[in-house]
């Protein structure tokens, strides 16, 4: 049986690292076309043209972030598998990448063989998490369950206060109304809402409301 070679897009803003990664990917059995992009905007444009099977995506890049690029690529082509390969391993980055639709997350410094296995894994439809990342995801899940008394709390990356504010945002309250209800300053609420947006990887209030309501928040 003949297997169609994989097409892969490598995205990273550091030329030397990107070139080395392209070399690794081109050396993999079963990989055909390999393209590269130097930032998020170029990644989106190239992905729309190439329609790759796998995108290997850095997160911290100038302009369009890897999170937003992942979201845009998958909105157009959900069958593409995104593997995040980044220096960032904090909770917010991991959760935001997975919520954007990434199927894998490993950190730079991984061995070539590990990177190749991760690419093959996400291409096959698996979810691939590096050891440290997998432990973080499990920890976030358990933390959410603990806070909910055995029931998993939505968005475990948010603090209790942030969840409270997000619930009120989902109910349609303005920052001023939330401030009055929680006896906070409007500036504090504004800063909290901004932090929530960052943790959820959303850019607009309407997107945050949609995400919250999808998770069952904002209901009477």
Question: What distinguishing features does this structure have?
Answer:
2 domains, elongated, Arc Repressor Mutant, subunit A, NreC/VraR/RcsB-like_REC, alpha/beta, 10 helices, transcription regulation, Sig_transdc_resp-reg_receiver, 220 residues, Sig_transdc_resp-reg_C-effctor, phosphoprotein, Rossmann fold
Quick one: overall form?
Answer: elongated
The CATH class designation of the largest domain is: Alpha Beta
Uncertain residue segments = none
Give the helix level as a range of percent.
Answer: 40-55%
Kindly state the number of beta strands.
Answer: 6
H-E order: EHEHEHEHEHEHHHHH
Mean pLDDT: 85
Overview of the molecule:
This protein is of the alpha/beta class and 220 residues long. The chain has helices at 15-26, 40-50, 66-76, 91-100, 112-123, 131-147, 160-170, 175-182, 186-200, 205-214, and strands spanning 6-11, 31-37, 54-57, 81-86, 104-107, 128-129. The longest helix is centred in the middle third of the chain and has 17 residues, at 131-147. The chain is elongated. The protein starts with 5 loop residues before the first strand and ends in a 6-residue tail after the last helix. The relative contact order is 0.10.
In short:
With 220 residues, the chain is α/β, with parallel strands linked by helices. 53% of the residues lie in helices and 13% in strands.
